[in-house]
Amino acid sequence: MKELKAKGACHCGAIQYLVCGEVMVNGLCHCPNCRRSKGVSPVHLITLCGENSVEIMQGDELLQTRALDKFHLVTCKMCHGPVMQYQEGMGFRAVFPVSLNLRRGNAGPDHGADRIPEEWKPQLHLNYENRLFDWDDDLPKFKVFPPDNPLKSDGTPLES
Ligand SMILES: [Zn+2]
Ligand SMILES: [Zn+2]
What we know:
By secondary structure, the protein is mainly beta. The chain has one helix and ten strands, in the order ββαββββββββ.
């Protein structure tokens, strides 16, 4: 599996974190939790194996976690910008490429990518059964998660 190591920050920059882990999925998520909590759909996210794949470097005291059933969204108390999200008991952390510095060597400000580098562009659509409208691109579209994903799902590919 591919490894992601990048710095990230909330919108105001008070929370700074380090993302380090094996990538499970890099995709566009159409699930209702993503869109209702961010106000946009789909949401580009990268899920990483392990509950310790996000390390808070600064602003620990500003972290705010809101749980809605098993869905947990971690945001900044000051700017309400998202830091990460996860499903309770599923052993992964999802982070948002818009908030990460994905440039090789992490040069520049730790305040999100100005452009997503080729290697970190989304690879697929997940939870496509929940899409608000159809997407006409060449990415594979999965009803829930891809079948080789360790997350619980039926992994059924959906023909677009
Ligand atoms: Zn903030
Ligand atoms: Zn989602």
